[in-house]
Amino acid sequence: MNTLRDVAEGVRRLAVTRSRLADDLRRLGPQAGGIAMVHTRMSALGWVVGGSETVVRALLDVLGPEGTVAAYASWDDHVYHDEERPAEHLHAYLAEPPVFDPATGEADRGHGRIPERLRTWPGAERSAQPDASVVAVGARARWLTHPHAPDHGYGAGTPFARLVEAGGQVLLLGAPLDTITLLHHAEAIADVPGKRFVTYRLAVAEGGRTEQRTYTDIDTGRGALPYADLGLDDDEFAVIARAALAAGIGARGVVGQAECHLFPAPELTAFAVRWLEERFA
């Protein structure tokens, strides 16, 4: 829903309709009938008439009845360790820790409005890994999201691997290059030593009961690899994505008012794996 502030800012921002979004998207090039994992910064698009619902409908218009739109959802209550929670709230969290239920757990609001909009869309599918959870709508939504093993949620046999297998795409609608979650998949499968891993426990709802489960994965919080040793001038994912663009992998375009990018998932992943192995192997 657009707020009064949005309306006021609409005087300075382009009013963007569903048909305008769809036309701009087609020029950028998402593949009809394909799978697109989308990262969106709504404010960059302009004043979208109808808000996040319009964005999803435009994406479905472009991808068509055989297409699938997906997003990285994670879980809004997820942290790796209890001490990462605010100290003044820790006692309450420990007394009654939140329980992850794939059917109801809210998508991480830090990734914008589209993941939660997709999660609650009719017919949506959501994978069962709390940190690496993916939501999807469309013809191959269930195939993409299930199964999703508890451990190594970004690696082989996950929704990210199936996105690559299907020749899917990564679409950045006004979102910065450092938001490309698929690059965690490259980290997970790259043949390099010294990866940081994290093990954590969560309460999970399944079959009408609650279970405590232990998960192990690459550390996406601190960074899976010692990027600080490289002396990079920007976030490592932004550096990798710009290098891929310079190598001819991916396209730029404008959707609404936003600078946007579209990457082929297999080629981007292969490029990122090589980039990582050249620097850390």
Present the secondary structure layout.
Elements: H1 4-9, E1 15-16, H2 18-28, E2 35-40, H3 42-45, E3 47-48, H4 51-63, E4 68-72, H5 90-95, E5 99-100, H6 114-119, E6 125-126, E7 134-138, H7 141-145, H8 159-165, E8 169-173, H9 182-189, E9 197-206, E10 209-218, H10 236-246, E11 251-255, E12 258-264, H11 265-280
Helix pairs in contact: 2-4, 9-11
What does it look like?
The structure is a single chain. The chain has 281 residues and is of the alpha/beta class. It has one domain. It has 11 helices and 12 strands. It has helices spanning 4-9, 18-28, 42-45, 51-63, 90-95, 114-119, 141-145, 159-165, 182-189, 236-246, 265-280; strands at residues 15-16, 35-40, 47-48, 68-72, 99-100, 125-126, 134-138, 169-173, 197-206, 209-218, 251-255, 258-264. The strands form 3 sheets. Strands 6-7-4-2-8-12-11 form a 7-stranded mixed β-sheet, with helices on both faces. A 3-stranded mixed β-sheet has the order 5-9-10, covered by helices on one side. Strands 1-3 form a two-stranded parallel sheet. Helix 2 (18-28) crosses helix 4 (51-63) and helix 9 crosses helix 11.
